[in-house]
Write a structure and sequence with these properties.
There is one protein chain. By secondary structure, the chain is mainly α. The chain is built from five helices and five strands. It has helices spanning about 20-50, 50-60, 65-75, 85-105, 150-180, and strands at about 105-110, 115-120, 125, 135, 145.
Length: about 180
């Protein structure tokens, strides 16, 4: 995100109708993130040796990072060795989730001082306003950061790379389960 509006307590006008190029990228983000969550769930089901219907009924839909934690725990329980960098996948997941959530729950604003720019206001988490020292709660001091098309495209690329990492992880797990029947569910 390029810049934040000055940390002056003021209300900015809402922008309800976003440009079509931004709506298209937000749609890509949402749909690709759903694929990421689906693939994490499928990997849990693979490790447990259950079909997707039983998985959806029993495992439900935990948070995205919790799904990776389940995978990591099951890998340990089954004594499977994988080369995938699980901490790196977790960091990527956290970035994907936080940015997707900001888009889903943030408000789009226009700053009269910068009429050609869109700002995404967030009220969750902490931030350091420009010219201030120390973090402040967004619930008390909301942040409205400029959001440009490249931000959305960057998030799409991050989600795509993370989806690929999870696909690769599941393939590695399937191979490990096939070579060792004792590890299979």
């Amino acid at each position: 995100m390029a810049k934040s509006t000055p940390a002056i307590p003021r209300e900015l006008p809402l922008r309800v109708n976003l440009p079509s190029f931004l709506l298209r990228e937000i749609g890509r983000i949402v749909s690709r993130h759903a694929i990421l969550e689906w693939k994490l769930s499928r990997t849990v089901y693979t490790l447990l040796g259950i079909d997707p219907v039983c998985g959806r009924v029993t495992i439900r839909e935990p948070r995205t990072t919790d799904r990776l934690d389940m995978i990591a725990d099951l890998i340990k329980i089954k004594n499977i060795s994988v080369s995938a960098d699980l901490p790196a996948i977790r960091n990527a997941l956290e970035a994907c989730v936080s940015q997707r959530d900001a888009l889903a729950h943030g408000l789009w604003m226009v700053d009269p001082d910068y009429p050609d720019r869109l700002f995404l206001r967030q009220t969750a988490g902490n931030w350091t306003p420009p010219g201030k020292i120390g973090k402040q709660k967004r619930r008390i001091h909301p942040q409205a950061a400029e959001y440009v098309l490249d931000d959305a495209k960057s998030l799409v690329a991050l989600i795509d790379a993370t989806v690929q990492a999870v696909y690769d992880l599941e393939e590695e797990i399937k191979a490990a389960l096939k070579t060792s029947p004792a590890k299979s569910p």
